[in-house]
Amino acid sequence: MLLIDCPYCGPRAEIEFAYGGEAHIARPAADVSEVEWSAFLYLRDNTKGVLAERWRHSHGCGRFFNALRDTRTDQFHAFYEIGTPRPDMGGAV
Amino acid sequence: MSGAFRLAGRGCIDTTRPVVFRFDGQMVRGYAGDTVASALLAEGRHLMGRSFKYHRPRGPVSAGSDEPNALIGVGEGGRYTPNLRATQVEIYGGMVAVSQNRAPSLRFDIGALNTLAAPLLPAGFYYKTFMWPRGFWDKVYEPLIRRAAGLGRAPTAPDPDHYALHYAHCDVLVAGGGPAGLAAALAAGQAGARVILCDENAECGGSLLTDTYSLIDGLPCGEWVVRIVAELQRLPNVQLLTRCSAFNYGPHNMVALNQRLTDHLAMPPTDMPRERIWQVRAREVVLAAGALERVLVFEGNDRPGIMLASAARTYLHRYGVACGRKAIVVTADDAAYRVALDLAEAGMKVAAIADLRPAPGGPLVEAARARGIEVLPATTIQRAHGHLRVTGAELAPVGADGTVGKGRTVSCDLVLMSGGFTPSLHLHSQARGALRFDDALGVYLPGESIERVRSAGSCRGVFALDDVLRDGVAAGLAAAGGETGPVWTVTRQDAPGTGGFAGVLPRRGPGHLALAFVDFQNDVTAKDVKLAVREGFRSIEHVKRYTTTGMATDQGKGSNVNALAIVSNVLGRRPEEIGLTTYRPPYTPVTFGAFAGHARGDQFDPLRLPPMDAWARAQGAVFEDVGLWRRARYFPRAGEDMAMAVARECRAVRAVAGIFDASTLGKIEVAGPDAAEFMNRFYVNAWTKLGVGKCRYGLVCRDSGFVYDDGVVGRIAADRFHVTTTTGGAAGVLNMMEDYLQTEWPDLDVWLTSITEQWAVIALQGPRARDILAPLVDGLDISAGAMPHMALREGTIGGVPMRLFRVSFTGELGYEINVPSSQAQAVWDRVWQAGAAFGLTPYGTEAMHVLRAEKGYLIVGQETDGTMTPGDVGCSWAVSKVKPDFIGKRALALPALNAPDRLQMVGVLTDDPRLVLEEGMQLVPAADSPMPMSAEGHVTSSYFSPALDRSIAIAMVKGGRGRMGTSLYAPSLDGPAVKVMLVDPVFYDPEGARLNG
Amino acid sequence: MVEIAEGCALAGLPPMVRLVVQGRPAALDAAAASLGLDAPPPMLRVASGVGGSALRLGPFELLILPTLEGRAGLDAALAPVPHSLVEVSDRNVGFLLEGARAADILAGLCPLDFALSSFPVGMVTRTLLDKAGAMIWRTDAHSFHVEVWRSFGPYVEAQMREVAKGISFSLLTV
To answer: Would you state the pLDDT for residue C174?
Structure first.
């Protein structure tokens, strides 16, 4: 069971959270092309490596937040609030 | 002393406490402290089981959790547990144990004929042999194989015991209580860390419990262990858990331990859990898992009486048992010499030590020679003789070029083997730690890990006792952040052995490798592994799956390294180029009871009861599960079946009034200055113009354009909406609302609160609903003019705060009375009493479904399947045409979502009005459409309608709205296809006159 | 109180008024002030004033257990600022779990670390008690105020009793 460091509550067990899929996917305006809208709905990177993803502390504070997780190892590199940019990991990962 | 092979004055068993138990119906005498294996060995019995595939007679190979052969069933009735390792099962008075996989008896087993068929049962035999004739698989081959193969039977009676689960947290978890683990735990504990030390055995000590040679600070090892355990117990920050196996190492240092609490007790205290799972979150983990001695692979290596050298030493020193009278030792490692010396010192005859190495030397070898034991250098074991017990072995010389010469047969009743020691990497590997091959030791060692973990002692290739203790202390200090730790001096010890062997032993001629076992438990032979490679399997992971080597419940503890070496030799590639298979949890088998923990029976899942549940039970309701809720399905009267009861309830609602507990509806309060704006963006409907005191049917789509949920929404105030959702959709809708609010529209000043359980909902539906309710609502005017359909009023009912919705899911005049849950029953009682004179009837979820289907009202999740648009289900009217954006808007404009041949919701009538279609039936164009048919649609809801006195159904049909009046056919499994007519889905009161009454 | 294990007693809490206040910082400040507090409690902490207790369950959320007077003052205090105030008195049911083994009982159902250093007196949080969402507030070293949604009450109570059944055989104190 992963240990997830909620930016508001601190480290908690994974069962308190709900996964929210890939992060930083902006919802386009309603006048974009069909191709763009379909991409927004269905196209994801399926990253092998460090992925920015969303979590919700659904059985805690209820807040959504973002995390950087290495999909190869499940190690987290950062937790950050919705609306803030993806942290620059430099050359670390 | 009981047992002819028991040695007086030896072992740690309590000879003042005899223990009698049964094995295969026979009384066996042992002593407190014995295992089933040690007690049977004390009687000279090695035969304890039959093998999985060939029913080969088998005896214990080991003295611990790595045992592949001696698997037994223990207990009776619901307490029976199969496949336990006799080498670990502690005996108690009255215990009932049985051997497994034999018929009719352990000594004479009919299935052993499988051995003769071994040439027909090679690796992957089930892929090859039983392919023809095809029909034979189900009826002949599979039943035969299932009967012949297998381990213990599963118990069928309910398990009477209870099991516990606990979460625990610590700074340092030490897995393994041998010398490294004890040293690590004491060092970490003295440094002030919160420490948990677990060991799978009944007591800590590990290899020290059988080491009668080494001295630590001048103390015999056993005494040193007692001293250290006492020191640990004095530390309040250290917890010692024995009979407790670390079986799973999960991400982020979550390690699962399985503690066996009562299985060794004849009379466990009442209420004591049988087992407990500890879910330990550790800041740091120290693995002190030790090393396992390897078996040797030679012909007949599975005969009872052939075991690991270290096991014989354990039986001698722990249990005072001589495993035989005359032993042959076959080794590639020095450690077996110490065993031979111990056995000789205890009075057993060691006929010879066959050493695979060309020129063994050193103090241990010299000591053996000095003791008069014949040491045969450069000698292999060509084969073992015997059937139910080994009777001898051919020992043969290995030439400098590796060829094996003619040997001589030496009689014996015990063969001890030692291929050297394999570090136990299971937990390290489960935590996805890398492994690295060590050329000097010829084994894999733990490499880098992403977890905060370190290995100590022999599980990382450190074997000399003084080194092990230092390694343990260092690991404990590093994990705890300590500076200085305890220091001990090992005043006498054996130098760690060099050498070791993996793979098939050298042999003369082709031999019969079909009977040289690599994986005892799965009956995988050296021949099987070689065959797999010859047939083209190159990856060790594929070899594993094809041959099943390493896939038994022992997780390849004894077999993996030998299998790897065989593959390596056949391919001519170095072991590290081949790699090791991934270790899977659990390290040792864990019972289902332990996994279930508290979650069993009524407590498996929360049972959510709506507020009027007790009333419904008193009325004799029949219930159904709806998610976690238990809801009243119908209220049968004497002599009524479900159809009769539901029909009566439906008629009562249409004729008079019915009362229904609708409390499970999801409810969300949406409040804040931007509430209307939020609702506009979230729902497909428009909300700006909805006045306070009014409600509206709301439909939620995903951004994919597909219907997600629906429900009535009332406007309580300009900045406050009372939203309802489906029962099953409550949590999902709230989550989706929070998602958009927090991540897309954080600028909106609006907040969401779940009020599902704050408000109970009493639905009062039917033409007399107003007459029943009007006198109860404390002066509120609910006349048709004052409170029309889709109006909402706040007030009180008998002084209880109320939100009253005039809404209908039945097509009748109706109300949904929302009152605080704690007072719902009192209000219900008042309504019930007021309705008695009218013939008010309680109805359940089944009547609710029929009534709504008569009206063609959609149920999300029944008519929809996650790919239906509002248009598909006839709800285009709900979708705002003017809002600039809402969830789903862009997708609903996609051409594919507006194609004319999309599935559309229609009504369906059978020609025969008595015939009720099955929900899920496919609809096809012709009665005799050739196979394969392509469906034009499918039935989603189907009932007998009391109001229409005929069957009705709702279906999703391609382009259905344009096909009204045409026919389709519903093919049936048990009769001719049923002809159906497509009609408007509103079967009853299409004008809606009754709603507005 | 009913003793469910040696050193642990359980009681249902009487009905009480529960209010959820949500809003931006100004709203939480106003709510806190109306209870007589200088400021809202920090995340996962409880503060009590003359008007009642405020439990900080989320960055934008307080659960308020008001006194009679505290309840009356809240509406007025919040009126000038955007906010949501919703009564959930009947949504939750409460339990009081007390005794030296109380934390051990919770640890049988909840993955939180209940060591005093990790979960001090005055801390509150939502979490899970096995399969039920719950709120746990440590009111004293050996005393917990536990709340769950009404329909989960019987389940959680039975689970606590089930854990209690075996707790005296547990060596480990969390």
So the answer is: 44
